[in-house]
Amino acid sequence: MAAALASGEGGTLAFGMGRSYGDSCMAESDHVVATAGFDRVISADWDNGVIVAQPGLTLGTLIDMALPRGWFLPVTPGTKFVTLGGAVANDVHGKNHHVAGTFGCHVTRLSLLRTDEGIVECSPKTNADLFQATVGGLGLTGILLSIELQLRRVESAYVDQCAIKFGGLDEFFALSAELDTRYEYAVAWVDCLATGRQTGRGHYIVGNHATDGRLRIAAPRPKSMPVDPPFSLVNGLTLKAFNALYYHRQRAARVTSVVGYDPFFYPLDGLLHWNRIYGRGGFQQYQCVVPFADAPDAIRAVLSEIARSTSGSFLAVLKRCGGIRSPGLLSFPLEGVSLALDFAQRDAANASLFARLDALIHEAGGRLYPAKDAHMGAAHFQKAYPAWPRVEALRDRHLQSRFWKRVTQQATTS
Amino acid sequence: MTIKNILIIGATSGIAEAVARRYAASNCNFALVGRDSAKLDVIASDLTARGAAHVSVQQWDANDVSQATATVASAWQNLATVDLALIAHGSLPEQARAEEDLDYAIEQFRLNGESAVVCMLALAQHFRKQGRGTLAVIGSVAGDRGRPSNFLYGAAKGAVEDCASGLRASLFKQGVNLLLIKPGFVATPMTAHLELPGLLTASADQVAQDILRAVGGGRDVLYTRWFWRWIMLIIKSIPVKIFKRLSL
Questions:
Q1: How many domains does chain B divide into?
Q2: Fewer CB atoms < 10 Å away: N or C end of chain A?
């Protein structure tokens, strides 16, 4: 296989479920190594919750196997339709970043196929430099062959959830300070069309794994968006109505409930092909993180800018990230506040808005998430991810993504 | 009838693995037979993680027809009783090469035809004694009519189909069901080198889902996906005078 990788023209790349929103999952050569079908569990120690699996295994399938035995993912992103390999390559994070760090913090060993050295094992202790370059390394350091992951014990498939309505950004920061220490999971949905004193109003949603011993859930069939509508259903009118409705649907200030893990962690997975609501043009996601000290001002400025543009998405996701360091050299989260939102694809309008947002983020010492990015300039990337040359040094010469080419080889002006 | 004990020949094939995964979730026992023991071991640990109660593996090269009876006997013994046996091994010969290189043609014909037929007969002996269960064998829509683009494969699968038809009538009287599975295009390692038409191509898991339903419903013949029954009906009904002018 190593010989086959080296024989192609231009760099290739492992490709899993294609859920990276930008060009980080696209190979320079347009020929990828599909990991679908390379999705077996090699060994599973259910006493200690340690599994070794091939990279094409999806998080959803892993949950199906692990949960009935009392184990759950140590960290999960907002969709379970991603592969283990993708979770490692993007060093994904979730609603428990403030207490658990990134996915890569729970990876104990990796096995890689490199065109120069063949099969190489690495872990936080052995070949540590390769391990650090591979966690969050966007698939560039070799084709993953196996991943060893430490799972997290749970006593239930349900989550004790509490949803709190808040009226503005100040309240968000107060709630975060109050609740993040008491809850493993915390995230806020923000109405990014609200302006003035209501800037940053939304719902703060926190949760802990329930302890009721129910490890199985009768799963309803997911609904599916059947077609691409001829135009985007997400426009100024629908947005404003939806966001206002969403904000006001909860009347009480605090509502507690017990919900299944699916609606809690993966609300959008319940609507397959949800991205089709944006029509054929699709959408672009913008996700940034800003260091805590400057976060209140920077996030307020970013949200105001988006509200003024009136092109923001249904809901933005605001999340406080913690200080647990990832082993990954290119890991995205840093101690601060992360903001993510979708924009219907409108090239010119997005380009000028994103340029203004980028300037605000970088001034505050923040950065953008490569897994979601399709526009970041090389200069911004290299400043925000100063360890990138160490990853470049360990990159397999036969692996190359369009993203990496864009942010490392472009003339450093922008 | 609940399926508990499953014997699979050609267990590393894409369709067989997808079928096994679906059954693994309901705590089944497996006896897996295949050529590549390293692959069998990985599949065994994967099935165990997915919920299989017990998995045994056995190495056998399906080209070695002389060992078929012994292999089937020992795999059967591992399970004691068998609710479902699936014959899934095979290859997709290159038609053009087969017409030039007759040694290759014979080898491919024997693997896809003779070897599958011998496995059917060997399994039938055990099923007769047991007096119940399902014998499932993977044929192909290609077996419906020899076409210029792959008639060597089609002829071998046609042999499997005729054997299945006769054996079904014989086993039926002893309480054993025989299911002939006829897949169309399926995205598996066997077809990985081909450019398959997206709309007509099923995933191995979709085919597996159809197979589980057919086994559960005691069906005789399964076209999967369903539309192949109608496509093949049209292909079969083309008069020879016209058919010989086509290059299907």
A1: 1
A2: N
Write out pLDDT tens, residues B83-93: 999 999 999 99
Determine the Cα–Cα distance for residues A99 and A323; give it in Å rounded to an integer: 9
Candidates A189, A164, A184; CA nearest to A174 is: A164
Nearest to A43 among B14, B25, B45 (CB): B45
Question: Is the CB of A41 less than 8 angstroms away from the CB of B51?
Answer: no
Q: Which domain holds residue A194?
A: 158-376
Alpha carbon separation from A263 to A191, A222, B12, B217 (Å, rounded): 20, 11, 36, 34
Gap between the Cα atoms of A40 and A18, Å rounded: 19
Instruction: Give the CATH number for residue A386.
Output: 3.30.465.10
Assign residue B223 the CATH number of its domain.
3.40.50.720
Predicted complex ipTM: 0.85
Examine the pLDDT at A278 and tell me if it is beyond 90.
no
Interface test with A, best of B46, B57, B186, B203 (most A CBs within 10 A): B46
Which residues of B lie inside 8 Å of A (Cβ-Cβ)? 14, 25, 42-43, 45-46, 48-51, 189, 204
Q: Do B46 and A40 touch (CB under 8 A)?
A: yes
Verify whether the Cβ–Cβ distance A37 to B189 is below 8 Å. Answer: yes
CA angle A408, A18, A339 (to 5 degrees): 70
